[in-house]
Amino acid sequence: MSHSSRFGVRLVLAAALAVPALPVPFALAQQAQPAPAAKVSPAHLQLARDLVAVNGEARAFEGIIPNIVDGAALSFLQTNPDLAKQLREVAIIVRPEFEARQAEIIDILATSYTRHFTEAELKEAITFYRSPTGAKLVQDRPVIVQEAVQGIQAWGAQVNAQAIERVRAEMRKRGVDL
């Protein structure tokens, strides 16, 4: 599989796992906002927060604030390369201000769950994730995903090689030797 194909698989997987690496431009972030949710009860929202904590999704975003702040500071490097050291220092200084906003991510995730699950369904999901099987799923998910990505990459390489051979064969029929 080519480097760009492997990168594409990783990028899609990262997006699917909601592990952002770069900040989203403001205009794009504005477009991506879902429609406002109907008013949910505090109990419903808290159940959704509990689910996000117990199912491991909250941990997936633990490093996002430093990445965003560092990315914002370092975005000035292209036009100000001599400021690299100072920009890194400033990023470290302002990080705590933004790390205080980590709970907002949990609320965004939780709000999405309240749109799709009733309180009773959230309670059932929490019960599952607190069970031995649910806890094992959360614990083993990173290894499972890594194995799956490796399998998908191997499969993609095989399909790519077969597709290349088929295209070559069809082009030979047309008198072109690739």
Element pattern in H and E:
HHHHHHHH
Number of helices: 8
Report the end-to-end length measured between terminal Cα atoms. 19 Å
Calculate the mean pLDDT score and round it: 84
Low-pLDDT regions: 1-30
Shape: flat
Radius of gyration computed on alpha carbons: 22 Å
Binned, the helix content reads over 70%
Oligomeric state of the chains in view: single chain
Record field, number of beta strands: 0
**What can be said about the biggest beta sheet?**
none
What's a quick, concise take on this entry?
This protein has 178 residues and is mostly helical. Helix content is 72%, strand content 0%. Residues 1-30 have low confidence and may be disordered.
Structural features:
mainly alpha
How is this structure best described in words?
- With 178 residues, this protein is mostly helical.
- The protein is flat.
- The protein has helices spanning 3-16, 26-31, 42-54, 64-74, 84-99, 102-116, 119-130, 132-173.
- Mean pLDDT is 84; it is low at 1-30.
- Helix 3 crosses helix 6 (102-116), helix 3 runs parallel beside helix 7 (119-130) and helix 4 packs antiparallel against helix 5.
Helices and strands in order:
Blueprint: H1 3-16, H2 26-31, H3 42-54, H4 64-74, H5 84-99, H6 102-116, H7 119-130, H8 132-173
Helix pairs in contact: 1-8, 3-6, 3-7, 4-5, 7-8
